[in-house]
Amino acid sequence: MLTIYPDYYTQFTCIADSCSITCCQEWKIYVDDTTKNKWKTLSAPDSMDADGRKLSSYITKKEGSHVIRLLPDHRCPFLTDNKLCCLVQTYGDSVLSETCTSFPRELHTFSTHKEASLMPCCPAVIDLWQQADAMGFPSYTMFSEQILPPSAGQTQAAFLLRDHLIQLFSDASLTPEEALLTAFYFLQELLREEKSGKKLTTSLVASYFQKENLQQLLQAIHEMPCVISDLLYECNELLQDLSVNYLQEGLYTAYLSPLMEQAENLTQLFQEPTDSDARMASLWKDFMRSFSVYHPLLRSYLANDIYADLLIDEDLSLSHMLMRLEWTTLQYTAIRHSLFLQYQAQDVPVLSYEAVRESLVILTRMTGYEEEDIISYLESSFEALLWDFGYPALIVGR
Ligand code: SF4
After folding, report:
1. pTM
2. pLDDT band with cut points at 50, 70 and 90 for residue 274
3. Which residue's CA lies nearest to atom 2 of ligand 1?
4. How far is the CA of 282 from the centre of ligand 1 (A)?
């Protein structure tokens, strides 16, 4: 079966001991059955001073899956002080579990082909995107000519829609906020048309992305009212909600503890009966100017997210695409808000590349939920699984 991938995919190399936020800590490192059986026969490396304990004794069960039992400081027991893996040093790469071997690559299988991509929860991937002038994704022409059967009308339309959205998020003339709101509007309108009996076809999709339509919509987006204090209040609540369980478990504390203190300070500011609206608007304007330096990187991040997560083989429906777009939006607004909090807490505000990369990596690790967990989070946090346009307009702003 053909496997396709974006052009940056083959350029990835793990930077191992030079990694600023190693993946060998603070999350679940799955151990597959083949590795588990192999580890029953292998002893812990001498450097661990473990008295010949079998590697399998470092495995535990968490939420129904086998994972490596982390140390009390949440690091992998096989990670050495100089940030290398002592299993690889002793036995070579083949000893590693599937998760350790493949990270940060992900693979989605469709009935017609496979799609590989890189995840943003690795700093080396963010570096790759930061250094790239532009990212190339497999084109719709390639799909329609080589992969999808001509009879698969609805499937063709879904892949064409994704292709248009990737182009929308990659468009250097749009801000990520404009691209997100445009994507929401188009998907919601297409869903409305579908519910009223129209079929999703390639020509219907193409008609939405015509230049005049885009221009009219952008004009309307620019005219929408945007109350910065409401946006900040809601994003502050969202970020706190996404962080609370991790803090309780003692995970990502070096990053989250100061951030949650800043979020609390912002909450206090909302309670002050002063000119908080004007103050927030001024802080926001200043922050967004600095943040815009990273728009090319954020465009790459969002375009990659659309490529990797918008479509799944089991569900190519518009409702599923909208649900995934909601999650992308929550992640983006959480990353942006975490940077806003860090920025405005400084005496002389600066937004460094390292801070942007750290927020991208940690927040995408924190929110890298499985599909059913995303649905359950959205259902329990909002009135309905699919939002009205007003909600993304509130949290995305401009
Ligand atoms: S996070 Fe990425 S660069 Fe860092 S150790 Fe893991 S795979 Fe390597």
Report:
1. 0.94
2. low
3. 122
4. 38
